[in-house]
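Complex record, two chains
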Amino acid sequence: MNRAGLLVLGLIFALTTPALPAGALDTLNQGKVELQSAGALAFGPKGILFVGDSTAAVIWALDTSDRSKRAPVAINLSGIDSKLAALLGTSRDQVLINDMAVNPLSHNAYLSVSRGRGPKADPLLFRVDAAEKLSELKLDSIGHSKISLPNAPDPQAKNRRGHSLRQEAITDLAFVNDQVIVAGLSNEEFASNLRSLDFPFSSANAGTSVEIFHGAHGKFETNSPVRTFVPFEIKTEPHILAAYTCTPLVKFPMSALTPGTKVVGTTIAELGNRNRPLDMVVYSKGGKDFVLMNNSSRGVMKLPTGNLDSFGGITQKTGISGAPYETISGLEGVKQLDRLDESNALLLLQTDDGPVDLKTIAFP
Amino acid sequence: MSSSPSRPTGPLEVARGGSPLRVPTLLLLTLCLCPSQQLSGKEPSTRVILESAEGRSYFRVVGLDGWNLDSLSDEDLALLFAVYVGTSSAELPPLLGSHSLENGSLIFRPRFPLQPGLHYQTIFDPGALNPGVRAGVSESNRITTNFDIPKRIASEATTVEAVYPSTNRVPENLLKFYLYFSAPMSRGQVYRFVRLFDESDRVVETPFLEIEQELWDSDQRRLTLFIDPGRIKRGLLPLEEVGTALVAGKQYRMVIEQKWPDAREEQLNKSFEKTFTVGPPDRAPLDPQSWSLEEPRAHSREPLCVKFDEPLDYALLLRLLQVVEPGGTSVPGAAVVSNKERLWCFQPDEPWPGGEFYLSISTALEDLAGNKIGRPFDVDVFEQVEDRIVDKRTRLPFRIAKD
């Protein structure tokens, strides 16, 4: 590693409490929220929880009123799926935990849950607190705002049943620099759909959709969907570290996310076949910065970010290539991952059809 | 719905064989929840029944004459009467729902409908209350009642209606399949039940892009399965490591397994199989100029038909083609895709007036390999460096003769 070329990584966004525009809480309306689905979750500041509702094509901002700063406490709760099933009066196999996010202020964990697997499944949000108590985030009267995602191409075009079958799955969310970044994947076109929405939401700003391309080894290029991502800084410049649906890990600067420009991410690692990052978090340990990611089938990986700034990208066909990583042993079946605090990660684990557990581990 | 209440072991037992006189008389007069009939030795009739109104079931505790429940908080009522799925246990919480006192009985309305085929247990337990509230009522006043919710009557089994592309010959870089079902399906386990086998009947390992959210339509009657783009796009590691999911010259079998549960948790009527052969990769962008149009006659409702030189994406064909009048207004009507997605026919709601029209085509339209109009799925930037940014729509004019 060329130390002279080493650029100091700035503070990781998630480590800090992002500033919120003055009065943003005031822009939330008190009232009933009716989710059609509860998927991707991300915390903004002041206990505001963003919820991706793919069915309604809406991003919700919910005031959890969970703003008390307190020291983090490890959360370890086994059989959370059975507990949810008991609360919801159903069987364990009818409970789907869609995403998990930790409130950076209170360190309480939030889960988006479906009761049922059919199109009319009930969407719910639950909180797990330091006492490992599971409680519902009630939506009957809650401060909220929402924004509808921009329409798909040709939304007026209907099929012969009279409605569009097109849907867009919201695959990831993050709040950074007063913006909610949304990654989506359509069920009809294979195309990138990374949006940035100003927060507080404004009907005048339906979001900027940016075309992100992927250049494979500097040769072949596709308009490729981002599946999951994490914001971080390189030399104080905000970046996105993203995983495409075709597996490569890429970086691109936030400043590139402007409409009308073509953004080509720089491939910094290829993680090989059957290895899809599900979630990524950034953390510091021993004065160095790392990315921790859980994968669909190759366990949990730790990737040092110290060299990402100097990493020019993969241009040669090699084996598993690019930024080095190590696989953390003993962590199987990690379905969800988030930062509990500066030193610990919260995992949602399930091996095969076994029980679903929440587990806290120290960052490796 | 039927109920099978077990024999109550609560106040009835206490009243008959117990020793109610253990309870201090003074407290009984002031705080006790117990019905006076119980204390006087009469048989109480406290029991739990399952009722239904407006399609929703709820539990009612009756036989509370003389009980003083009005002073109890919602939290106290939740302690006094709880409903569990299966059997109650200390580890698992009771159902979410709301308690209320109505016409002398205690009601619990579950937050969600009771699920057919499941067993529920209700516990009426004054002993669970704080002693200050409970006022010495014995824990043996507990009443346990069991309910089995009958399974739904089996209805017509869900079928696989169609799989697209419907052609039996696909390019090696095929991008996606659409699976259509006759009724809503369950989500969360797609990749277990759709599998691909090669000529030797070996399972093709992870051919599909597995995303947790799954790509359904809002009715969950259509599933989109992308072939893993890491195994299509040239120059990527998965392709180098394990090759394409589909190999030109080979034959494959897609199997949709019968045991895949639909949204009612019932399996399909039978397994579905689609056998297909694989041809060379298709890396050519779409060219609408190579399509042929069959114009209808004026004053008729004959369809306008467009023939393509290759099969195109079924779902996008239904969404991204429009017939437009010269003034820019869409002609109302209905489109049908047939001939293995090589033919698109549009029938107007009203007879064609004659004149100049055009077919408006979104450049997002794709062929089976994800090639779009003016842009192949993956662009070889060494060969074609310039951006291929084209208009969002392109048009094919046609004329309907006015006799």
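Note: The helical segments of chain A are 80-88.
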